[in-house]
């Protein structure tokens, strides 16, 4: 029998299969599962378990600002640059959100 905690997680967790990378995207705020106001600015973490990833990537998601409004040079998805596949996957849930990698290299 499956535990109720596995059927209804207490924290938001997504298994991600983006081209070239598989991993776990998760949050530590349980309000993301039940309270839409918690989706204004929040943190997610990504761990792939690959050798080149030395630490869990800490991402800040802002759903009320837009990635095209950021200052030039700050956005990994600016014209002429490839948007990391993980950002595109996150934007399937939160369209237009600004995603800050907080100093983590999105390509690692």
UniProtKB/TrEMBL annotation:
Presence of keyword Hydrolase: yes
Top EC class of this enzyme: hydrolase
Gene Ontology terms describing biological process: protein K48-linked deubiquitination; proteolysis
A Pfam match: MINDY-3_4_CD
Protein keywords: Hydrolase, Protease, Thiol protease, Ubl conjugation pathway
Highest taxon of the lineage: Eukaryota
Domain (Deubiquitinating enzyme MINDY-3/4 conserved): residue spans on this chain: 2-103
GO molecular function: cysteine-type deubiquitinase activity; K48-linked deubiquitinase activity
Catalysed reaction equations from the record: Thiol-dependent hydrolysis of ester, thioester, amide, peptide and isopeptide bonds formed by the C-terminal Gly of ubiquitin (a 76-residue protein attached to proteins as an intracellular targeting signal)
Record flagged with keyword Protease: yes
Its EC number(s): 3.4.19.12
Similarity section: Belongs to the MINDY deubiquitinase family. FAM188 subfamily.
Name of this chain's protein: Ubiquitin carboxyl-terminal hydrolase MINDY
Source species of the chain: Onychorhynchus coronatus
